[in-house]
Design brief:
The chain is α/β, with parallel strands linked by helices and about 500 residues long. It has two domains: about 230 residues, D-Maltodextrin-Binding Protein, domain 2 (3-Layer(aba) Sandwich); about 220 residues, D-Maltodextrin-Binding Protein, domain 2. It is about 45% helix and about 15% strand.
Length: about 500
């Protein structure tokens, strides 16, 4: 079965050589095994299979004497996504006088922010912010920490209809059917490719690969035509491995990928997992794969496209707006986070395009990923109410639209997609055209397959990525390496469940 190809009628984009460093950095948007704990109120079982939500003091602002100051910790935002975050905070502060938001950048990666959070939590709850922005992988540990005020409690208190949100997004960010974050910056993996290379190799520039078999065939054509030395630039990351396996119904951990109960056993070393890694080894042995280790903040896999060494790669959909702004000169090298000399690079043959995530069987079988904004219950009621005010501000379709148009994140509020401005953005704007496959993937995502829910996600991520790098970079045996990684993750899960 094949999914439809999205139209990508994109005119050839040209830019100065110096824009290359921005394009590369644009795409970089992209610990402890135990959760921190506190004595804060948390979700409780009601005894009938349901849960009892804690109180959310949404009316506490009414009693405040003067503006209430709250702090948001965030990180892992670069390029246009970082600018969008700054603009969002500024717009919120300018639009009302009850709350003053201090949005504090705590690092270049999600991992850095989470490390600072766990360190602050161990020193006492008075060291914690009022809100924190973290990667989706921290959902289970944040829910288990007892330090999160579930957004669903505030939505219920404020009569906000959860049906306004995309079903797959609600499922992804819920634990025991309770939605924890107040807003989600959602992305999905997509294929970025150089349309100019497709033309040079005699391929249809509007037809990127839909399956891994097609990706292999196109890589062969690109290499045989002498267009790129190693056509498929590939960063070894658990995100792609998980997405490929869940796309064919395999689970990463037991308990229905952790959704029916706390996962206690890793299950990702499947026959399909071995076939997948064997396929990548084959591509590597034939010189079709350009493998890069998953180093924090690394951008070498992007540079491979700019230097024409490679023709395609997999990465986050969020890079789209920064690619647009970089090629148009709308952001500086410092804003993009670039720290290299691109003066010798030639963009005259770089024509960016995107396609749906090429799957084992079909394109576009993904689950939502990205960052999540949590409200902490370690703050005073008035500060919790102020935090909810900011979440409610972002949930307004006008502001959710800004996250999509400027930040490159996908529409999580359903009403956004129906606006004429958004329809025009998808058709006429470079970023919108690049984002369209990801938008379609999210709309088609199955709420019953929201991706794995794992407590010790850093352990799982480290083991899967280590296994992928060992297999592809150090010629380790596929079956043995995956089995060892699975056993190590199972031990971490057991420790976590304790």
């Amino acid at each position: 079965m094949r999914l439809r190809r999205s139209s990508q009628a994109l005119a050839a984009t040209r830019g100065r050589c110096t824009a290359a460093l921005l394009v590369a950095a644009a795409m970089v948007a992209a610990a402890c095994s135990d959760p921190p704990t506190s004595g804060g109120d948390s979700v409780q079982a009601a005894g009938d299979g349901d849960v009892e939500l804690p109180d959310c003091p949404v009316d506490a602002l009414d009693e405040a004497e003067g503006p209430v100051e709250v702090t948001l910790w965030y990180g892992g935002l670069n390029g246009s996504a970082k600018i969008a975050m700054d603009d969002m905070a500024a717009a919120f502060n300018a639009g009302q006088d009850a709350v003053v938001l201090n949005a504090s950048n705590q690092g270049a990666s999600y991992e850095e922010v989470y490390r600072k959070y766990t360190s602050a939590a161990s020193a006492g709850t008075d060291q914690l912010p009022d809100m924190i922005y973290l990667e989706d992988t921290q959902l289970q540990s944040m829910a288990d920490s007892g330090q999160v005020l579930p957004a669903e409690a505030c939505m219920e208190a404020a009569d906000y209809d959860l049906a306004n949100l995309e079903p797959a997004v609600r499922a992804k960010y819920s634990v025991d059917d309770v939605l924890y974050p107040g807003y989600m910056n959602v992305s999905t993996p997509v294929l970025y490719y150089n349309k100019s290379h497709w033309e040079q190799a005699g391929l249809d520039p509007e037809a990127p690969p839909e399956t891994l078999d097609e990706l292999y065939e196109m890589a062969v054509a690109l290499k045989e035509a002498g267009v790129s030395a190693k056509p498929f630039s590939f960063k070894a990351t658990r995100w792609f491995y998980e997405t490929w396996l869940t796309g064919v119904g395999d689970e990463i951990v037991n308990e229905n990928d952790g959704r029916d109960g706390l996962a206690t056993e890793a299950t990702f070393a499947t026959d399909q997992g071995e076939e997948l890694m064997t396929f990548l080894v084959k591509m590597n042995d034939e010189g079709l794969l350009n493998v890069f280790a998953n180093t924090e903040g690394g951008i070498d896999h992007y540079l491979a496209l700019i230097t024409q060494e490679s023709s395609m790669l997999l990465e986050t959909s969020t890079a789209s707006t920064t690619i647009r702004d970089a090629l148009g000169g709308a952001i500086t090298a410092e804003q993009a986070g670039a720290e290299f000399d691109a003066s010798a690079m030639d963009l005259s043959v770089l024509v960016p395009g995107t396609g749906a995530f090429p799957g084992v069987e079909a394109a576009g079988r993904v689950f939502p990923s990205g960052g999540a904004f949590y409200m902490l219950n370690t703050s005073q009621p008035v500060e919790q109410a102020a935090s909810w005010a900011f979440m409610e501000f972002m949930l307004d379709p006008v502001n959710a639209k800004a996250w999509h148009l400027s930040g490159g994140y996908l529409p999580v509020v359903k009403a956004v997609q129906d606006e004429p401005e958004i329809q025009s953005f998808w058709e006429d704007d470079l970023a919108g055209v690049l984002l369209q496959p990801a938008v379609e993937q999210l709309a088609d995502a199955d709420p019953d397959q929201p991706g794995p829910l794992i407590g010790p996600y850093p352990d799982e991520s480290r083991e899967i990525q280590g296994a992928m790098e060992g297999i592809l970079l150090n010629d380790q045996d596929v079956a043995t390496t995956l089995a060892e990684a699975q056993a190590n993750v199972t031990e971490a899960l057991e420790r976590y469940a304790g």
